[in-house]
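Hi everyone, sorry if this is the wrong subforum. Our group has a chain we'd like a structural model of before ordering constructs, and none of us has done structure prediction before. Sequence below.
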Amino acid sequence: MTLNKHFFKGFLIGLLVVILINIFAAHLFSDCGLPALFGLGGCADAISRLGFPFVFFEQGGFAYHSTLNPPFLILDLVIGLGIAMGTGFFFNRKKK
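Answer:
Right subforum, don't worry. Here is the predicted structure as tokens:
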């Protein structure tokens, strides 16, 4: 099976969907929403969280803390690339 422009389009669509889901999850998981990730939140003790399906980064809080979990980051990247490749192969399949 040759990889062509259909695979590339599907891959980009899958990657875009994964990125948008992660942005939406960061908005929902963070205490003050997406502005808290950029330091613009109105909450004094907001906790910002990143990652979907696994939260790999967390920072903030009244007693400030910052945590990065590299295994969860790698798992999130592998899952995201797997979804993007899956949509790429789905778009690339031959229609009968």
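For your construct planning: The two ends are 15 Å apart (CA to CA). The chain has a mean pLDDT of 88.
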